[in-house]
Amino acid sequence: MIAALVGPEALLLRRALDKLLAERVDPSAKDFNFDVFEGGSLDVQKVIQAVGTLPVFAVRRVILVKNAHELKKTDLDKLMPVLSEVPETTDLIFTAEKSDARTGFWQKVAKAGKLTEFKSLDPREAPRWVAEEAAAAGYKMDFQAAQWLASAIGTDLSALQSALQKLFLLKGEQKTISLGDVESCVSAVSWKSIFELTDAVGAKNLSRALQLFHRMEESGESPIGMLSILGRHFRILSKVKEGDAAGVPPFFLRDYQRQAGQFDPSRLQDKREKIFQADWALKSSPIDNNLLFERLLMDLCR
Q: Which helix H or strand E contains 152, and what residues bound it?
């Protein structure tokens, strides 16, 4: 089987990947039959070798290539023939922020397997998604409360989910979430601090960035939640830099425009890549989350 999970919406992509791996990877033989490769540092020969290796003590072998959008053209050209040689006993899975349907590689992936896209949520759909997510967790959420949350945070589902998790902890066994609950909870997320943190990164002021991170962490913010908000923040800066203000909360637009002026497009893209890599590390690495976030800030301030 060949499968590709593609798109900018990390939360939905990650959920689909987790479900796929749960279905295809045998936990008892995972060490022998599950190979993970990174697109940015891919050794194509190792992937080819893994594809040609039969599963051990299991029915299937699963090969995951993450961040396939970082693959060089030479790597794509070398992988093209492999797509026709994947045996029935092997699953070859790609994840990517984006794919170019004009290239032969991605055309062949779509033809030989299944390519699923995870597009960013339309701002008009965000309140309904928030309410449905709350309902799935057993909470009834006022539409006005869902609308306020979506307006304050935007369409980044990871950031919305992080805010909902805080609400669920706040409410406990009380299963109704009102506008007042959302206002009191989400106001604890210091948007001012996110802008200050980005200013510190733009100025390459590591000590200031670390100070702000620790202040937010002490106020109860988790590194994963902060990273989701920071990732969304830099995505918005990229959009604003390109002149696209669609979906940007109007009360923050001037601040985004000011900060976007501090970065050139290549620097913004570089920082988004670092945040994306840190997101995977936070969710998969045994290293302490605070240490990973501090390392990210060091990279961003270089």
A: helix 143-153
165-194 tens-digit pLDDT: 888 888 888 899 998 888 777 654 456 677
The DSSP element (H or E) to which 127 belongs, if any, is helix 126-136
Q: What tens digit of pLDDT does each residue of 17-52 get?
A: 999 999 999 888 888 989 999 888 888 899 999 998
> CA-CA distance, 3 to 16, in Å (whole number)?
11
Q: What is the pLDDT of residues 247-257, one digit of tens each?
A: 666 657 788 88
Distances (CA, A) of 132 to 12, 144, 221: 14, 14, 24
* Dihedral sign for Cα atoms in the order 271, 18, 32, 106: negative
Closest by alpha carbon to 29, among 53, 56, 51?
Answer: 56
Domain that holds residue 13: 2-117
Residue 258, token pair as written in the block: 């000011």
Q: Residue with structure tokens 């995972």?
A: 30
Of 66, 63, 22, the closest CA to residue 40 belongs to 66
User: Do 196 and 180 share a structural domain?
Assistant: no
Q: Is the Cβ–Cβ distance between 193 and 219 less than 8 Å?
A: no
E strand residue ranges, 33-174: 34-38, 61-66, 90-96, 114-117, 140-141
Looking at the structure, do residues 213 and 295 belong to the same domain, yes or no? yes
Strand partners, 95: 5
Same domain membership, residue 90 and residue 18 = yes
Which H or E element spans position 5? strand 2-6
